[in-house]
Write a structure and sequence with these properties.
Layout lengths: L4 H26 L9 E7 L3 E5 L2 E5 L3 E8 L3 H33 L9 H17 L4 H62 L5 H17 L2 E7 L7 E7 L4 E5 L2 E2 L2 E5 L18 E5 L12 E2 L20 H36 L54 H7 L17 H7 L3 H41 L3 H35 L5
Antiparallel strand pairs: 1-4, 2-3, 5-6, 6-7, 7-8, 9-10, 10-11
């Protein structure tokens, strides 16, 4: 037989267990709107039974209940999927935002104030030559040619400067993101230390693990992440933790140790016309900080594989199309330089084609150019300001140096042929010796079509980014809903649990009062009070 007080102990345990479960419910309700919070579950378990001797055998009597553990409602597989898709979503979201900004700069960059961009200024330039061809002696038409030419060159300069600013802003953003990665790494390592210290005592630090997971979720927006957890061989209660970034599995956090990235300027180099660095500036490269231990003992570089950027050691990959950092690197190192290369090529084509026709005029001299022959990029294109017959607006009389016909005939042939560059590649008379076939092989049917192709090609990139972003948005929303279904706090469910635990607590209290009445009967009924 057990003692009378055995029942009181069972009741006490029941009260404590139900009170603990109610506390967990209260904690869930309190954090229903807390970002990153995971619903916690009170796991009740029967305590070790009490063995008594029965006639010819032993009998086990239940000894009550205890709150064994409090665990998080978490699905690691959903976490993995959500972080992977979040990295992709942020890549395309950031890419769409930056490309749209660049596209807007392309459309609005017009020194004429029309806001219609380079295409409009090119058309105005060709139209001015067409008007001059109709009235070669008209000084007003010459002035318009000069004015539209200045507008065209200024627009090239404006576009170049805006794209250079875009590239510089993205480079600054890259530096900021590296700093944010380092901050997250330190915070995650510090939390891991606290978690492991708590685990070593048998605790289950759910709130600390929520905080760490929330930081990892934020980190996954910048760069792809991979979490590895395993049981510590020295202490099975403790979970070893490793956080890798990028597809190359570069260790960023290992238990309580945080490795750090740093930014450094690459060596400026000359690149091809199709992929130049804008302005010849050095850009930020991302390396592992040498003051922190590297698992493979190397000094690795994250960033560009472009020949215009210095490389050191083995370059870890951030993961294709993942995270805002890789998105910025792709635009800064590839999309923007390629676009500037197109503008440089267009500027060079206009200078070469116009000068090729213009120098055949014969008067003033065959060696005089309309555009400065050394200004063959978007940043340097300019009207001829040297020689005996400059055409730039530095002097009011320079408009008289603009020629419209061959050998001073005043027939407007030169102006007409230049105007025809708007739609094709006109050929001068055979005696002039001009052949534009080499330009045609580079620029296609016309300079205008070359520019249209460049603009439409960039527009395709914007549309692709928008489409991919929309697709990833849907995936992330679906996975977020899946996670919330598992980890989110449902007030209705918590209220149901609260009533359940409340009723159980009331029943346990009733057991205690019943046993108290029994004890009172024994004490008072048997006269023990004396």
């Amino acid at each position: 037989m057990t003692s009378t007080f055995f029942g009181l102990e069972i009741g006490r345990r029941a009260l404590n267990a139900q009170q603990g479960a109610l506390d967990v419910t209260a904690h869930n309700v309190s954090n229903a709107n807390t970002t990153g919070y995971s619903r916690q579950i009170a796991n009740l378990t029967a305590t070790t039974p009490y063995t008594i001797q029965a006639p010819g055998r032993e009998e086990s009597l239940g000894s009550g209940v205890a709150m064994d553990t409090v665990t998080r409602a978490r699905d690691k597989f959903v976490d993995l999927q959500l972080r992977n898709e979040t990295s992709k979503q942020q890549y395309w979201t950031n890419r769409e935002t930056n490309l749209t900004s660049i596209q807007s700069a392309m459309n609005e960059a017009s020194s004429s104030g029309s806001g219609s961009g380079l295409s409009s200024d090119m058309n105005s330039f060709w139209s001015a030559w067409s008007d001059l061809s109709s009235d070669p002696q008209n000084s007003g038409s010459r002035a318009v040619v000069q004015e539209t030419a200045v507008t065209l060159t200024d627009t090239f300069h404006s576009i170049y400067n805006q794209l250079k600013t875009e590239q510089s802003n993205i480079d600054t953003d890259i530096q900021d993101q590296v700093g944010q990665i380092n901050t997250y790494a330190k915070q995650i390592a510090a939390l891991t230390q606290q978690i492991q210290e708590a685990q070593s005592t048998g605790d289950n630090p759910n709130d600390l693990m929520d905080n760490r997971d929330n930081l990892i979720d934020n980190l996954s927006k910048i760069v792809s992440v991979n979490v590895k957890e395993s049981t510590d061989s020295a202490n099975p209660k403790v979970t070893d933790f490793e956080l890798d970034i990028g597809s190359g599995s570069q260790v960023l956090v290992s238990n309580d140790k945080a490795y750090q990235l740093k930014t450094s300027s690459s060596v400026p180099t000359n690149t091809s016309t199709d992929n130049p660095s804008i302005g010849g500036n050095s850009f930020t490269n991302i390396t592992w900080d040498a003051s922190y231990y590297l698992p493979d003992g190397t000094s690795s570089l994250i960033g560009s594989s472009d020949p215009g950027y210095a490389q050191a050691g083995t370059s870890p990959s951030l993961g294709a199309q993942t995270g805002t950092l890789q998105s910025d690197i792709d635009i800064r190192n590839t999309d923007l330089p390629t676009l500037v290369g197109k503008y440089n090529s267009l500027a060079s084509g206009i200078v070469s084609a116009v000068n090729a026709i213009y120098t055949q005029a014969g008067t003033p001299t065959p060696t005089d150019n309309f555009f400065d022959s050394t200004g063959t990029t978007a940043s340097t294109i300019a009207l001829e300001s040297g020689g005996s017959y400059p055409v730039d607006p530095s002097s009011d009389t320079n408009i008289n140096n603009i020629v419209a016909g061959i050998s001073g005939s005043g027939d407007g042939t030169v102006a007409s042929e230049i105007a025809n560059l708007a739609t094709g590649w006109p050929m001068m008379p055979a005696s002039s010796g001009v052949n534009l076939s080499s330009l045609q092989s580079t620029y296609g049917t016309s300079l205008g079509s070359y520019y249209d192709a460049a603009v439409s090609g960039f527009g395709v990139k914007v549309q692709e980014a928008s489409g991919m972003k929309n697709g990833e948005d849907a995936l992330v929303t679906n996975l977020t809903n899946q996670r919330d279904a598992v980890s989110g706090v449902s007030i209705d469910e918590e209220m149901t649990n609260m009533i359940q635990y409340q009723k159980s607590y009331t029943a346990a209290a009733r057991v205690v009062t019943t046993i108290d009445d029994m004890l009172n009967t024994i004490v008072t009924g048997l006269g023990i009070t004396r």
